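seq:
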Amino acid sequence: QVQLQESGGGSVQSGGSLRLSCEASGPYTYTIVWMAWFRQAPGKEREGIATINQVGTIRYADSAKGRFTISRDNAKKTAYLQMNSLKSGDTAMYYCAAEWSGDNWLKGSQWRYWGQGTQVTVSS
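struct:
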């Protein structure tokens, strides 16, 4: 099993920045190839933001390009999401996911492990 723990969420004013972290733990963390960030706003569907694999291959959702940056420290078993120029529309619960199996990383159903989420609130 793999456990994922997100941190770094909080409240920030529009235009501000936050850096989210996702630490993986458990006996099978060595099996993780892909890690990703998703978010879900109230009343909306969960959406993929970005994903990264062990060798640094990165993919972004179109909505995330330019303001969000995903990175990863394999030694720390941690993925990060740097979010800049935040807008009120970025307010959501942000989730970390790991172990992707499928043909479309944007589909949450194709990810095996999930964290509990960290709340990001952007005020205008």
